[in-house]
Amino acid sequence: MVTTADLVGGIMQHVFETLYTFGDGLTIVPLLAESDAVVGDGGRRLTIKLREGVKFHDGSVMTSADVLASLNRWREVSDRGKTGWAYITAATAPDAHTVVLTLKDPYAPLLALLSLNNNAMAITPASNQAAPMTRFIGTGPYVLKERRADQWVILQRFADYTPRTDPKNGYGGKRTAYIEEIRFVPVPDPNTRVEGMLSGQFDYSESLPTAALARLRGQTKVAPYLVKDFGYPVFSLNNKAGVLSNMKMRQALLAALDMDEILKAAFGTPEMYTARGSMYPPGLRFHSMEGADAYNQKNPAKARQLAAEAGYKGEPIRLLTTTQFDYYYNMALVATEQWKKAGLNIDMQVVDWATLLARRNNPALYELSTVGAPFLAEPSLTFTAGSERPGYWSSEAKDRVVGAFNAEMDMAKRTAMWPEVQKLIYTEVPYIKVGDQGTLRATSTRLKGIQPGAWSYFWDAWVER
Amino acid sequence: MLSFVARRLLGMLAVLAFVALGVFVIARVMPGDPATILVGDNASPEAAARMRASLGLDEPMPVQFAIWLWHLLRGDLGQSIFLGEPVLTLLAQRAEPTTALTLMALTVAIAIALPAGILAAILRDTAADRAILTFSMLGASIPSFWLGLLFISWFAVGQGWFPVSGYGPPGADFLERMRFLLLPAIVLGIVNAALITRFTRNAMLDVLHEDFILTCRAKGLPGWSVVMKHAFRNAFIPILTVLGLALALLMGGAIVTETVFALPGIGNLVVSAVLRRDYPVIQGALLVIAFVYVSVNLAIDLLYAVIDPRVRLR
After folding, report:
1. Radius of gyration of chain B, Cα coordinates, nearest whole angstrom
2. Using CA atoms, how far apart are residues B224 and B28, in angstroms rounded to an integer?
């Protein structure tokens, strides 16, 4: 899959399946793989056993040849595929239901890469590897029936779906498609989405404005719900060029901020946010408070001091933000004022999302930008990722600490190593986490079985008559 | 007359050539590019660069323009980068909701504005005149997105008279689709009626003070005949100009209203294309909109001649 857009991943996860997926608490569980990957040769070999008899939408049965072909296609078309293939030296199939990946170095995030539904390592028949894809043949519980641009995407239940037999576990385990047809309808205006829910035109809607919470509550036909720890907005700092390439300056930026004020401006009601320094909320494997005392310092005097130590002379600091996501804009607005109080000369540039993305790709054009991410099972896939990505975090300490974390294949040991990574993030400040953000969604009261999660899915859900 | 039409057609071609160059340049000088959007916000600059190359966007600008122009001259507007369909097909799909919405909204606007404007002119400086002027001022000041949301809340959610948004479910027939346009057409009609009302009133007032109206009255013609047959016909030229402008603007897509009502019209297409820098769609759609605009203007100019014999003589 070419795009990393969550919208596409969220819809197509019904059509395409991956070798692995995310279980409860952001664990990694098998989906088209039969079982957990067997790690050998000091983490340099992954043996993946495939499920047998899994049917594609075209009626053919999945074998290791399809997986190998899909792996190769993933390398060609997908950025995450290229990340993974930087470590994979060979992919072979000893038999029809086994795939062996040989790695040049142990690389723990690979399994998470094979699990993600965006930029996904989607398994499609070996005979269907055209890029761009013209026939959308997956193994998922739904078949792509029709897509009309800006009007609808229609998915239809796949009658021959081959479900797993183990119990449901997050996105993994047994999947049952009860609903005959799912229609995804784009409604660009958030307030219109609210009205659509209230009128009963839709059964599910997401990214609803927080201001609508009161109106949606107390309705008989609508059930609003908050996904409390949906993701986290950050200020991504340009570590490579300009004044913020100086670590002391980045620490100054962090010291000045009052996150409570920023979050209130960005998300309004306290139900929608939590001021929390841990990179992961409680209940998830990587939750830790290590280093988090540097979060929410509210200390402009210290910031001024750090900036002086960095030799800062009032050079403009270009902050990229956008009104296309109002919380980014509000967050930037309040933070700018706080930074100005600390004597930092912030030049806030409000641009559209497309411009922001393009400028971030050139380290000469900005100092920091507002971005965000959902909580992913693998920390190294977001802001601690490669030094070639916007943010451009690169340091000797990062190579050592994050390198060791990524090379450890044992999950228990990795969990124990994460606090050190988090501590490094609060020392070198490659980015500034603002807090945990919730998101408001709603279902009609007749739609049952929807699980709150990063990407809503509609297998295991049903409509009551 | 024939040379008039020929001159106008030539002018139209010149305008379109200028627009073609303009939209190409405007699309390309916008910061950001479709490749970055296509690979998503989690992708690396290298991934964006690879995508750019595969889309042919790494070619020099004049080369890209020449390629586009070459295809354009053969009637090919290119293919959407995001939607994977020819731009012409996309525009054709969206022409129905936009055209239908325009005609319905204009009907609503005319039904409100002409009687209101004429009435206000006849009853000049009375309470009725002031009420009409106040309402038209209100209509011109209300943002259409707000009026749209208000009407959705009242009439679609509250009363259930209209659907909230969209352009009908898959397989909806023409009448069903038109039902989805009623509410947005009323909103657009009201917003457009405001301006037309004021124009109608002013145009009528100008004519009602002319000597020939006095003559008509002195001849003992009935009041309605003076107003409708003599005054209104003469006042209609400036009104027609405003109607033409409104028609052309609406055909270019009622962007805000289409977004609020999630209508798959031309305006929606252009906005989403701009936001994701879908160059072929931006260029193609703007060019077609410009074409519609100048065509409507030409048609209006020709209509003057039909309505007012004096124009024909010039």
Report:
1. 24
2. 57
pLDDT at residue B313 tops 60? no
Q: What is the rounded distance in angstroms from the CA atom of residue B139 to the CA atom of residue B151? A: 14
The count of structural domains within chain B is: 2
- Tell me the CATH number for domain A6-137: 3.90.76.10
Q: Are B264 and A151 an interchain contact pair (Cβ–Cβ within 8 Å)?
A: yes
Cα-based angle B83, B85, B89 (whole degrees, multiple of 5): 120
> Taking the domains of chain A in order of start, what are their residue ranges?
6-137, 229-438
pLDDT digits (tens, 9 = 90+) for A129-138: 988 888 999 9
| Residues B168, B51 share a domain | no
What residues of chain B lie within 8 A of the CB of A3, using their CB? Answer: 38-40
Q: Which helix (H) or strand (E) holds A91?
A: strand A88-95
Which of these three, B40, B73, B106, is where a domain ends?
A: B73
CATH classification of the domain holding B259: 1.10.3720.10
Q: What is the pLDDT of residues B129-170, one digit of tens each?
A: 999 999 999 988 888 889 999 999 999 989 889 999 999 888
Q: Which two tokens stand for residue B94?
A: 């969206």
Q: Which two tokens stand for residue B154?
A: 């009242």
Instruction: Residue B55: give the domain boundaries.
Output: 2-73
Residue B234, in any domain of the structure? yes
B82-135 residue pLDDT tens: 888 899 999 998 999 999 999 999 999 999 999 999 999 989 889 999 999 999
- Stated pTM of the model: 0.87
Helix (H, G, I), strand (E, B) or coil at B238: helix
Contact of B145 with chain A, judged by CB distance below 8 Å, is answered with yes
Looking at the fold, whether B16 and B40 belong to one and the same domain comes out as yes
- The confidence score (pLDDT) of residue B253 equals 63
Give A-chain residues touching B43 at CB under 8 angstroms.
4, 79, 119
CATH number, domain A229-438: 3.10.105.10
Helices B279-307 & B2-29 angle (0-180, nearest 10): 160
At B271, list the tokens: 């906005």
- The answer to whether domain A6-137 and domain A229-438 are alike in fold is no
- What is the nearest CA distance from A325 to chain B, expressed in angstroms? 13
Provide the pLDDT confidence category of residue B217 given band limits of 50, 70 and 90: confident
| Angstrom distance (rounded) from CA B53 to CA A365 | 22
